[in-house]
Specification:
By secondary structure, the chain is α+β, with helices and mostly antiparallel strands. Helix content is about 25%, strand content about 30%. The protein folds into three domains: about 1-75, Alpha-Beta Plaits; about 80-165, RRM (RNA recognition motif) domain (Alpha-Beta Plaits, 2-Layer Sandwich); about 170-240, RRM (RNA recognition motif) domain (Alpha-Beta Plaits). The protein has helices at about 10-20, 50-60, 95-105, 135-145, 170, 190-195, 220-230, 250-255; strands at about 1-5, 25-30, 40-45, 65, 70, 70-75, 80-85, 105-115, 120-130, 155-160, 175-180, 200-205, 210-215, 230-235, 235, 240. The strands form five sheets. It has a four-stranded antiparallel sheet. Strands 8-9-7-10 form a four-stranded antiparallel sheet. A four-stranded antiparallel sheet has the order 12-13-11-16, covered by helices on one side. Strand 2 (about 25-30) and strand 3 (about 40-45) form a beta hairpin. The radius of gyration is 22 Å and the shape is flat.
Amino acid sequence: VFVGKIPRDLYEDELVPLFEKAGPIWDLRLMMDPLSGQNRGYAFITFCSKDAAQEAVKLCDNYEIRPGKHLGVCISVANNRLFVGSIPKNKTKENILEEFNKVTEGLVDVILYHQPDDKKKNRGFCFLEYEDHKSAAQARRRLMSGKVKVWGNVVTVEWADPVEEPDPEVMAKVKVLFVRNLATTVTEEILEKSFSEFGKLERVKKLKDYAFVHFEDRGAAVKAMNEMNGKEIEGEEIEIVLAKPPDKKRKERQAARQASRSTAYEDYYYYPPPRMPPPIRG
């Protein structure tokens, strides 16, 4: 977990007993300022289990550790993924993997989105997945230095927004399917016809090359997902997962990012093609 808003004159002797109430601590790193000898106001705590980390958020977020001083605690995920813009649109996943392997180390996967009307072209950006945070951070530094060129160009690089896993209890109630890799010829009517044989639908919403299929019954949604995933519709093999309900933080990020754009479909999401992050991040 990440712990913020720590009073500067507070140390491990107060943090450890408080956070141990949630479960056994594996590691605690309080960030220090070597000049003043005080802490920098934040720490990272690793627990021995995921449950303990979630319990620590419940117990200690907004906890008043000193009069008027409240801690801020949230789950912290090591980010292994970079967003890269300025990618030539004719490059394939294999081309990108090969090219970035030449200039960075520890690259394990490339996530690429194709243009809805032309599957041979990408959308001019991709995500690079590294084996660990250290490799991703080193790759980011190299690519941002301006000295490294990819296909003769300097690329734009940012940390990708981390994907926050929704609460399992919330996911257990989802009755909406996220269907991607749809051909341009697929209409909402075609989807309705294909999915309604599994149960009654509330509605179907298609956007670009993906769609949301809302069922009235959870069991019908799960059955449709299991039986339709990987099937062909209009010549394209579709991919289906349960849609993730939107989380508040993600909505706030999106609102800030597209204040001037038209409203997106936000009842549910999965990974609709991510938008470019703003040029500067805190």
